[in-house]
Amino acid sequence: MAEAFKFELVSPERLLVSEQVESVVIPGAEGEMTVMAHHAPVMTTIKPGVVTVKNASGGEERYVVFGGFADIVPAGCTLLAESAVAVKDVDRADLARRIQEAKEDAADAKDDQSRSKAEQFLSQLTTLEGALLPA
Amino acid sequence: MPSLKDLRNRIASVKATQKITKAMQMVAAAKLRRAQEAAEAARPYSERMGSVLANITQAIGGGGDAPALMTGTGKDNVHLLVVCTAERGLCGGFNSQIARHARDHIRRLLADGKQVKIICVGKKGFDILRRDYASMILDRVDLREVKTLGFANADAIARKVIHLFNEGAFDVCTLFYSQFKSVISQVPTAQQIIPAAVASSAPAASADGASAVYEYEPEPGEILSDLIPRNISVQVFRALLENAAGEMGAKMSAMDNATRNAGEMINKLSITYNRQRQAQITKELIEIISGAEAL
Fold first, then answer.
1. Which GO terms describe its cellular component (chain B) (predicted)?
2. Global pTM exceeds 0.90
């Protein structure tokens, strides 16, 4: 039995999760990472992806987040997501709209740097869509 | 002297108005509760954002890699004012208070020889400021179609502001909105968002040693350049939510006053009506009696 720690998932609209959890998998900007209790303090940006929360009672919940960042300290982990929804509530049309917007952004980008950024974001979104489809 | 019929019509019309204001008051009360809930739900995010920002600015120090959005352009010649007001009237002095606050600020800036640009959020502020400063208004954001304020609305405004900043259109950006103190009190507030006013909680953060040894992924500068625009969106979002709650609060008390005024008016009119009716009856009686006496 792993030790529990406090995890909070906050979006600008509301506080989604605030509970004791065992581990959290965060889609960090530089790769996925699993956070457990007594993690070294890290601050990382996150990319669009799925956050998997394993709570202290053994249940598992999954949330889709679209960008944001995570603040990890030994005592807990706070995830500030630009927008977050539970996987079961994901709106396919919304996802499609985001992808469409990302495509437009990539097409409109003026210089190489912003284009590669937009394309990267687009590919992250499509990966996310792929990951969710079988669900 | 109005006739009895006129008075009756008048009373009926005031009663109808009272019904409307009463209904508006109740609608505002219901909306206020929702707006307050939304504002409260958004609070954790902005609080966490503030503490994270304080941490990271501390880590980065006043170093050279702080993004321009944070440090500003180093000048303060051109000011951008984002004035957030309501879309609708009938909410007492709510809109004019914010507009007056903004106008005072503009006057001060102009007296100092600064250049002023304005973005209006909400129709009412635009209507008021247009009278005096039409040439300075760059843009207006219309939120009338928006049923529930989402983060996306705030994000769009923030993006507009950041885009202007990157083009070098202004040096300092100030946000005007009404802080929601309570249902009866809203305080017009000016908040500087670019360059970001450095959080004063920095010493508190350094007090607990844990925050000192953060690891950053990617580099702090990179996170910060991602964080600052987001922080601006959050500030705008908070302002919009506070405004929404304030508007409903102001509307509620304004409509409460109106309902009460209408009640008073009905009372007064009814008294006049009854007196006049009595006077007429008396007059008729006198006529009949004096007619009978004459025989």
1. plasma membrane; proton-transporting ATP synthase complex; thylakoid
2. no
